[in-house]
Amino acid sequence: MRDIFKNYTAVLRDFSPNARRFLLLTFLMSFAQSVFSLVFNLYILDLGYTRDFLGILGAIPSLTVAALAIPLAVFCAAFPARRTLIASLLLSFASMAGMAFFPGRSMLMLFAFVGGAAAALFAITAMPLMARSSSEKERQHLFSFQFAASMTAGFAGSLASGWLSAIWAVSLFSGHEGAGAYRVTLLAACALLLAAVVPALKIKEPAAPADRSGSAAFSALALGPALLVLAPQLIISFGAGMIMPYLNIFFKSGFDLGIGSLGFFMSLMPLAMAAGGLIGPWLVTRVGRVRAMIMFQSLSIPFLATMGFSGFLLPTVLAAFARTMLMNASWPVYSVFMLGHFPPAQHQAASALYTAGWNLSNALAARLSGRLQMDFGFTLPFLITITCYSAATLLLSRKFLKEDSKKAVTPTAIKEEIE
Quick one: three-class SS letters along the chain? Predict the structure, then answer.
């Protein structure tokens, strides 16, 4: 593990200025969004809205990303990354500030849509920018470091959000943890997000060639094989949408946690994601890419069941950490697996199609889960998630396991595929 961190430290010094600026932007943006997201669901419920409406709010950004990812990938192909990144940050600020200042039902839905548009712009910009800001030798390190920076910021943001909300409750609202304290935290997150504009403005990245057609790659995709490759993750996305957007509510309502304790427990989840991102490549070199995904997903299922049905805080927290680590260990492995089924010219199109499909599936599940929680609590959503994880693992086993026997997966082979 020490060698891994020493390697990243050495590579970081060799990153281009653009790459380092994007890493800083990612950290600042993820930190602010984590501060916001920890208390947002609690804020909405404390305003008097139902979990059904919370499900609607949770679905709108994902549905917006699903609807806009492909059109924006086509439209923004010739624009400089700096322009789309700044637009994304400003739209995200407008969304967060709007939901803090205007708590009416229709306005919340409007600003949730704006937030989805911001996320779509960032999603179609980040990967191409990182690819153009790195050499083939350092590209995988940059992608991994960006993921780790985002998760570390999520850890810090969740901690800060819990502490800030507790401070506001004591100093401004006579110790009451409610919508007023949560709103001040939401506004603090808006101010923090503006700091990310500074590194975005310093990114010096030229526009893509004007004659490059953003629609050509999409027209060349073979839809049937593409959907088969995407299907395992889309099934997982549906299962994750049942539980993950409501994890803060699950912990707070199930164990009557204070906001400070909730912030601490939720901050463990990004750390689990970062740990998973580090162990994924290690297992791939030993058992193969598809077997690694099957192992990670299979092992996560009993932890998911423990998390949903143990009824005790410590086992639930430990199980949530393990589930998060294992499922996120498979995410970067799947990314390489997915891109390996498309020629390089179609990578952007495949990524946009994956982004749209993931968010659509996740949004539908989040919307359904909000309704189911009103009638069944978290019992049925957890059962659906377990079923989805099992089905995705079975699909990988039946359709793709033979790929691991075609050639050994070595560090050299992985590097060649990425490059």
Answer: CHHHHHHHHHHHHHCCHHHHHHHHHHHHHHHHHHHHHHHHHHHHHHCCCCHHHHHHHHHHHHHHHHHHHHHHHHHHHHCCHHHHHHHHHHHHHHHHHHHHHCCCHHHHHHHHHHHHHHHHHHHHHHHHHHHHCCCCCCHHHHHHHHHHHHHHHHHHHHHHHHHHHHHHHHHHCCCCCCHHHHHHHHHHHHHHHHCCHHHHHHCCCCCCCCCCCCCHHHHCCCHHHHHHHHHHHHHHHHHHHHHHHHHHHHHHHHHCCCHHHHHHHHHHHHHHHHHHHHHHHHHHHHHCHHHHHHHHHHHHHHHHHHHHHCCCHHHHHHHHHHHHHHHHHHHHHHHHHHHCCCCHHHHHHHHHHHHHHHHHHHHHHHHHHHHHHHHHCCHHHHHHHHHHHHHHHHHHHHHHHHHHHCCCCCHHHHHHHHC
